[in-house]
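Protocol step 4 of 6: structure prediction from sequence.
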Amino acid sequence: MRHDRLRFCAGAAVLVLLMIFTLNTINAKAESKLQISAKAAIVYNGSTGEVLFEKNADEPLPMASTTKIMSALIVLEQEDLDERFTVDSEAVNTEGSSMGLREGDEVSLRDLACGMLLPSGNDAANAAAVRVAGSIENFVGMMNERAEKLGLESTHFVTPSGLDDYTDDHYSTARDMAVLAAEAMENQDFRDICGLQRVKLEFGCPPYERWLINTNKLLKNHGITGIKTGFTDKARRCLVSSCMREGCELICVTLNDPDDWKDHMALFDYGFSHVEQVKLSPKQHDIRLMTADGRQVLCKVPDMVITMTRDGASRSESRVYLPDFIYAPVNNGDKVGEIVYYLDGRELGRREITAAENISAPKTSNGVFIVILRNIRQFTGL
């Protein structure tokens, strides 16, 4: 009988090992079939920080006009976006792609953001830089400061447009550009503009209506929500795009990619095949909070639904934040605290912890006790 058990356990162990080997082989084959032309690439889940695919993602490379993601983000964070002003005549006198600015034209910062993100206007980037920071050099300083705050350790800007400089000091990585793109898409103005296939604006001298067309051809595909194209002789074709499927948005970056339209759609298919909607739950559901007069309040601690990888879900953590006590009365549904879900130290989201029952006000006999507690709390700052 003992030998039979041993044989059964050994057989089960072999079966588990075979299953693991088979799954790893399937995953390896799936990734090996994903042949892309890019020198560097990444697929990134901006909501969780998970990397679903990468190729040379940390190699510093020129990124051409995808630079304008940073420029447009800084511009759209300014006040008075719709206030009109006259463009700097030297700023608009630049080479490369243009939104059609001329000396003496009247525009707004919002117009210039559209000019950067749709037709990839170098004139728009320069004009916006002078308006916001007083000079192109000062604006580039703002770009690099923002990159440092975002933790983009392998990124350095020299121009607001992305035009090649002659010192090889204008560069980024696929990973850094994905993080930047995720940050930019948190800005609603940026999101709204970069997802437009075309836009009608009124600017000029005097202002008149005209259409700007987006260079991002991926926007014709279902689910594509942005973001920015780029090309220079040195950087070659660069593309940062975002795609939304079933409530989950992924970001794809390719640098130096001769077949970027095709590669991005293949990368999105691959990325979305590795995520699913999961429910994150707290370790402890039965949580009670004390009232100042010694009673207990049953709390409702919510789950969180998010789209991510299974591995990420298994590594997620939660932290409960509650006060030491609460004053009655308490009504069912009142917020009493928060639960925050994390993945590798990154906040995934927070939900309100609420009271799950009604607790009446303390009896009059306890009134003096409550007043004393309140006075102690005010005096000590607790």
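Step 5 (inspection) to follow. Confidence is low (pLDDT under 50) at residues 8-30.
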